[in-house]
Amino acid sequence: MKWETAPSSYISNSSSWMMEDSLKSTIWTPVENKLFETALAKFDKDAPDRWQRVAEMVPGKTVADVTIYECLVWTPQI
Q1: Model confidence pTM above 0.85
Q2: Where would I find the Myb-like domain in this sequence (predicted)?
């Protein structure tokens, strides 16, 4: 396999598209919130594939996006 160096114009723009993708997954619309709540109610909290199934019900969200809920629930209040 032959590797080539990417032009600097590709590299300088690469961080902005990565940030845009990151922002898209962290900003939730009201519709996404409702789909998420519906999915949480639908799948048992002890189901081994719960987060995968929840993510599948919220278009554009990943398992990592939806599992943040678990972190928020278990974060102690200050």
Answers
A1: no
A2: 24-76
